[in-house]
Amino acid sequence: MEKEGEEFFLPEFFPFVQLNFGLKAKFSSNLHGLVDVGIFNGFLIRGGLALRL
Fold first, then answer.
1. Of 3, 12, 25, 44, which is the most buried if we count CB atoms within 10 A?
2. Cα–Cα distance for residue pair 28/49, rounded to 1 Å
3. Residue 39 pLDDT > 90
4. How far is it, in rounded angstroms, from Cα 51 to Cα 53?
5. Which pLDDT band, with edges at 50, 70 and 90, does 41 fall under?
6. What mean pLDDT comes out for the span 2-22?
7. SS3 assignment for the chain
8. Predicted TM-score (pTM) above 0.70
9. Are 48 and 24 in contact (CB under 8 A)?
10. What is the CB neighbour count within 10 angstroms for residue 46?
């Protein structure tokens, strides 16, 4: 394109998409867990445990 004298156009606003899928689990009345997997500029894995006292 540069050889032909045309410029490459990049918009100022570039939308992106993030896809996440998660799983919540209740192990007991006081213990909960979460696992989240997604795609955002690479592969993401997140997780956590919650304990209610």
1. 44
2. 12
3. no
4. 6
5. confident
6. 73
7. CCCCCCCCCCCCCCCCCCEEEEEEEECCCCEEEEEEEEECCCEEEEEEEEECC
8. no
9. no
10. 11
And the tokens for 49? 């445990």
Give me Rg for the CA atoms of the chain.
Answer: 21
- Which residue type does 37 have? V
What's the chain's length in residues?
53
Cβ contacts of residue 46 below 8 Å, gap of 6+? 34, 35, 36, 37, 38
Dihedral (C-alpha) 36, 39, 40, 45: value to the nearest 10 degrees?
30
